[in-house]
Amino acid sequence: LTNGTFGAFGLIGNGKQNSATNTYSTAINGLNNISSGKWGFVGNGNSNYTNNLYSTIINGQNNLASEVCSFIGNGTGNTVSGSGSFIGNGSFNTATNTYSTVINGNNNLTTNKYSTVINGINNSATNIYSTIINGQNNLAFGAKSLIGNGHNNLAYGVKSFIGNGCFNSATGYYSVIIGGQSNQSNSLYSFIGNGASNSAINTYSTVIN
């Protein structure tokens, strides 16, 4: 089975059925990889596809890097479609906006500028600078919101924070929930430390436990 180079100064190092179809595009090794962006790069793996300027995939399978300077390190079925977006590893993760990042995990999603998911499963960071460190089924919806861990937590308010726990909701600006379950911190600077089914609904309202 043959490799094909169709771009000026395109390079294929080894492998089978790899293609480098644009100027200075490169496919080093692997099977069925396509490097079709100018200065695009595929290092290894199977059925990876880079199709924009400086888009890069190091390894893995069925990954897609489709925007300028987008990068995938490894994994399966990952997609980076934002300029400068980054996925380190994992499976079926998606980074769709400028400098959006998924480091690892499964089925994680970052959709806004500088949004980040470090690890976990089915986490979504959907606003500018929103961040999820770990956990499952968490949503950081507010700008600069942060979720540390846990599952099924929602950080909706601007600069809202949830440390851990499950089914917690921080919807007010600067609202905070440290841990617990089914807690609601719904107002400006409201705070819940721990416990279950607590509500902090007024400005500066506090529930310790």
Please sum up the structure shown.
The chain is an all-beta fold and 209 residues long.
- Beta-strand content bin: 25-35%
Helix vs. strand class: mainly beta
Shape: elongated
Order of helices and strands: EEEEEEEEEEEEEEEEEEEEEEEEEEEE
The residue fraction in helices comes out at under 10%
Number of DSSP strand runs:
28
Strand order of the largest sheet: 1-3-5-7-9-11-13-15-17-19-21-23-25-27
Radius of gyration: 21 Å
- N-to-C terminal Cα separation, in Å? 66 Å
Overall mean pLDDT stands at 95
Largest sheet data: 14 strands, parallel
- Number of distinct helices: 0
Poorly predicted runs: none
Question: Could you explain the architecture of this structure?
Answer:
This protein has 209 residues and is mainly beta. It is built from no helices and 28 strands. It has strands at 4-5, 11-12, 19-20, 26-27, 34-35, 41-42, 49-50, 56-57, 64-65, 71-72, 79-80, 86-87, 94-95, 101-102, 109-110, 116-117, 124-125, 131-132, 139-140, 146-147, 154-155, 161-162, 169-170, 176-177, 184-185, 191-192, 199-200, 206-207. The strands form 2 sheets. It has a 14-stranded parallel sheet with strand order 1-3-5-7-9-11-13-15-17-19-21-23-25-27, with no helix packed on it.
Protein traits:
209 residues, 14-stranded parallel β-sheet, 0% helix, mainly beta, single chain, 28 strands
